[in-house]
Amino acid sequence: MTSVPDTDAAGRVLSADGTPLKQSLNRALRRQKLRALALIAPLLIFVLVSFVAPILDMLFRSVENQLISDNLPQTVVILEDWDPNSGELPSEAVFEAFAGDLQIAISKKVHTRIGSRLNYEKPGISSLFRKAGRQVKKWDIPNDGPYKEKFADLNKGFADIEVWRTIKTYSGAYTNGYFLNSIDMQKGADGAEARPENEQIYITLFIRTLIMSLAITSLCILLGYPVAWILANLPSRTANLLMILVLLPFWTSLLVRTSAWKVMLQDQGVVNEVLVWIGLVADDSRLALINNQTGTIIAMTHILLPFMILPLYSVMQTISPTYLRAAKSLGATDWTAFWRVYFPQSIPGIGAGSILVFILSIGYYITPELVGGTKGVFISNRIAFHILSSLNWGLAAALGTILLVVVMALYWAYDKIVGIDNVKLG
Amino acid sequence: MTFTRTLLATSALVAVGGTAFADGHMASDMTLVSWGGAYQNSQQKAYVEPYIAMNEGVTAVWDESSAEAVAKLRAMNEAGNITWDLVDVVAADAIRLCDEGLAMEINPDEDLADAPDGTKASVDFGDLIVSDCFIPQIVYSTTMGYRTDLVGDTAPTSVCAVFDTEAYPGKRSLEKRPINNMEWALICDGVAKDDVYSVLETAEGQERALAKLDTIKDDVIWWSAGADTPQLLADGEVVMGSTYNGRFFSLIEEQKQPVAMLWDAQVFDLDGWIIPAGLPADRLARVKDFVKFATDTQRLADQSKYISYGPARLSSAPLVGKHADLGIDMAPHMPTDPANATNTFLYNYEFWADYRDDIDAKFQAWLAK
């Protein structure tokens, strides 16, 4: 009787049908994985299409700059030979190509968009293009040149070398200009350079956002830990009642809560009035509690506190009280029992709560806008401004990308230091 | 990324297909976008209710999104799904929307009604049509108000009282943006009104304005919502502050607070409609019909019964009557009333369209310092 050998010539273990065991095992596992993938496919596709793709699309705008190369194609090509540092305007050929490109752009009604785009880099170009639109469409190209003079007559802005330098600098289909702008730099005559000091703002705001978010997270731990401990150790009927008090702010509008803090914290507000009344603070030196960093920290700590308490509470509920009793029966003081036995078991809750609070606070902008005054605003306030008001979505995308990368770097650091396995929501 | 766009566009087509051609060639639903609150209410009463009374079966839905209209319209345009039919925006936003190709260009004489005496709309609205896409409705102004009981014996008469912390100690509230503040700073620093924008065009001029604002920086509470200054004044948090004249009207006349207005150097600004670009024919026909009605002489005058903003048509001014609830004459509360308009300042749209981003960066950097 011939039997299938257990091993092949190379010494690999074979399965019953003669294929190497490893290969057959892999095949079975692969089938399992595919089935699992098919099961989660609907959700995966949904997340990809409705969440990941729009975010990538938005982030892509931070480098995208096709508007100019697409709509001024001839000008951009001829302009490549021009040296902005020569001190002379581009040649007549550039102006003629520009007139032709502009006419097409006007007929497509995109010339004002080109103007708006370039205006982010040099103020004044927006109206230059808007006004040129009304005249240039009547020109007979190429018969009524020379166009250098015609453009200069139309508006002296076209005879400004800086305008042409801006067009040349931003003529590529992709640009790093938005990213340079978000770290307080700009594209100058000789590559990247620092912005003038009176325009530097973003790095300050990034650092401030991180520091204040850390402060808010720490405050949430300090305030939330005892509350969660009490909730976890009370009989469940009382605990449920108190839990409603924690959740109540959750169900109240964010704006209402923020406005309530205004009433509480302002100079003539409740807190100051009480302090003056009991004589702790003189009437003429009331505490400045709002429209500054203090205001932002107080209001945001209050708003984000439930996000700290809930994970802490659910983790603490799983810590059996017998551990504490055992520690005490073995002679530990109250403090030692807490610090050496209870606290280490509650760290996963602190980790989960901290990540939640920190990431939420980094992206906050309504509360800082309302109670932050000038020194308590976050980077997200600027991002909101560029999305909603200035329509400079490229810059907003660059700022957002940097913020995302910073958060991911912090997450990575957290994983290295504390370990992400050590995070539990309950 | 084209993929998401196609996907969104397809769903848009389905949505549009559902509502199209319900009422002959005109759609029967309109989505109007405005600011909410008392202002939107005045539009509902003065324009929408009479229009619906005349056109049975037409419904109008409000979306209170004017503050984010520019960004949302751009997003809708990119997705190929315009869900708004008519959008109320300030003139500066209208210019930006027009530049971006997100608003439709209009022909005033064709799309808007003539005045009762036959004057063409383009003449009746005159210079207030600041953009090819803009249909003006009201003139409002940003101006100063002060607490009558907190300013001592000599009430302020000039806008420069804001910079005078000696005579008027206490906090003041100003809007958290460069527009208006930079102009006031220069005027109070001795620049003639006519030269303000040519000074502000230069880096030195911008430095100068910020230096003037720097003298009161520690005394300013910066607001970003129009309701902030009225609240701060009512609570006695500030002695004076800037906001829109309609907010002061309700603070003084409706809530009877001890506040008075300083019309000096009030900055006129405009608010009006734009029609989003790319509407399907039936919806466009409906909205054009509505706009022609809602911006005629009588309707614009009617709006001033509910709110103290001046109608944008010359021919509406004589028709301004009494407040619908309070019964007081509205003419003296209009920013355009001769008694209030002795010293006014004209906001330069073209200038701010060009310099807004640049000066805003400097202003915010200065604020953050």
Q: Topology, please?
A:
The complex is a heterodimer of chains A (426) and B (369).
Chain A: H1 21-60, H2 66-71, H3 73-79, H4 92-107, H5 111-119, H6 125-136, H7 147-154, H8 161-169, H9 177-182, E1 185-188, E2 191-194, H10 202-233, H11 236-247, H12 254-265, H13 270-277, H14 293-317, H15 321-329, H16 334-362, H17 366-371, H18 379-388, H19 393-417
Antiparallel strand pairs in A: 1-2
Helix pairs in contact in A: 3-4, 5-6, 10-11, 10-14, 10-16, 12-14, 14-16, 15-16, 18-19
Chain B: H1 2-19, E1 29-33, H2 37-54, E2 59-63, H3 69-79, E3 86-90, H4 91-99, H5 108-111, H6 121-125, E4 135-147, E5 172-175, H7 181-188, H8 196-200, H9 203-214, E6 220-223, H10 228-234, E7 240-244, H11 245-254, E8 259-274, H12 281-294, H13 297-303, E9 310-311, E10 344-346, H14 349-368
Helix pairs in contact in B: 2-13, 3-4, 7-9
Can you give keywords for this protein?
heterodimer; A: 426 residues; mainly alpha; MetI-like fold; 3 domains; two-stranded antiparallel sheet; 19 helices; 2 strands; 2% strand; B: 369 residues; alpha/beta; D-Maltodextrin-Binding Protein, domain 2; 2 domains; ten-stranded mixed beta sheet; disordered N terminus
What's the short version?
Chain A: One of its GO terms (biological process) is transmembrane transport. By secondary structure, chain A is mainly α. Helix content of chain A is 66%, strand content 2%.
Number of helices of chain B: 14
Which whole number gives the mean pLDDT of chain A?
90
How far is the first residue's CA from the last residue's CA of chain A? 60 Å
Write down how many β-strands of chain B occur, each being a DSSP E stretch of 2 or more residues.
10
Within the CATH hierarchy, at the fold level, what is the topology of the largest domain in chain B? Answer: D-Maltodextrin-Binding Protein, domain 2
